[in-house]
Specification:
253 residues, Undecaprenyl pyrophosphate synthetase, 9 helices, Z-farnesyl diphosphate synthase activity, UPP_synth-like
Length: 253
């Protein structure tokens, strides 16, 4: 172990000692950003190698979350906007995501896909649906895998689902308007049944949500990290937890 690694290990232990179990977020959302830029910074012509490096990092993150006591993790792997990328880049990225999901299933995680699966190629959608079916009984940390996800589309899908549900019961638009509240919409989101994220982490230095969990993040705390996602370290994760623990959550003010 190098001197630098030893220093980081000691720093990690110091951060861990300062974290109280009562201050750990139940639900952490992660925007895994910067894979392409990491590949270019490393002088790699094939950006899919950056995506693969980022996929490898996810298994580490989930172990860190489980060790810390986090109960839910939502990973944004592919946005609806990403689906418009050139086919030469999109297809390798989808292959990386499919491989990642299969690995997470083999590693024993409880996987819940979220997003507009109907927009994805059939083979990618099948991998995600099979992961859900195979792991639905597993206890412990729940991993939401957001693929083909966009916050605005999620809200539109929720409203559409709500209207269809009410129409099947014979309710009119006028009757729905009289009783509609935020909980009705929340019950039709991709994350229905799960708590909203307490902490949202974004890597690569960008300080925006880009449509990630627009509805659910209304009261979330945010942590922006300069590192590209493949370079995200356990010490960065612990710093995010420390930052979250230091904040006084006021919910709506």
């Amino acid at each position: 172990m190098s001197v630098r690694d030893l220093v980081y290990k000691l720093y990690e232990r110091r951060l861990e000692r300062k974290l109280s179990p009562a201050q750990i977020p139940r639900h952490v959302g992660v925007i895994v950003d910067g894979n392409r830029r990491w590949a270019r910074a490393m002088g790699l012509d094939d950006v899919s190698r950056g995506h693969q490096k980022g996929a490898d990092k996810i298994s580490e993150l989930l172990v860190w979350c489980r060790e810390a006591g986090v109960e839910y993790v939502t990973l944004w792997l592919l946005s609806t906007d990403n689906l418009t990328r050139d086919r030469s880049e999109l297809e390798p990225l989808l292959q990386v995501i499919e491989g990642l999901v299969r690995n997470l299933v083999e590693q024993g995680w409880h996987i819940k896909p979220m997003g507009s699966l109907d927009l994805l190629p059939d083979h990618t959608a099948r991998v995600l649906k099979q992961a859900k079916e195979t792991t639905s009984h597993r206890p412990g940390l729940i991993v939401n895998v957001a693929v083909g996800y966009g916050g605005r589309r999620e809200i539109a899908d929720a409203v559409r689902s709500l209207l269809q549900e009410q129409a099947s019961k014979g309710a009119s638009i006028e009757e729905l308007v009289e009783v509609l509240d935020v909980e009705h919409i929340a019950e039709h989101l991709y994350t229905r049944g799960l708590p909203d994220p307490d902490l949202v982490i974004r890597t690569s230095g960008e300080q925006r949500l880009s449509g990630f969990l627009l509805w659910q993040s209304a009261h979330s705390e945010f942590y922006f990290c300069e590192a590209y996602w493949p370079d995200f370290r356990r010490v960065d994760f612990l710093r995010a937890l420390r930052s979250y623990a230091a904040r006084h959550r006021r919910y709506g003010s």
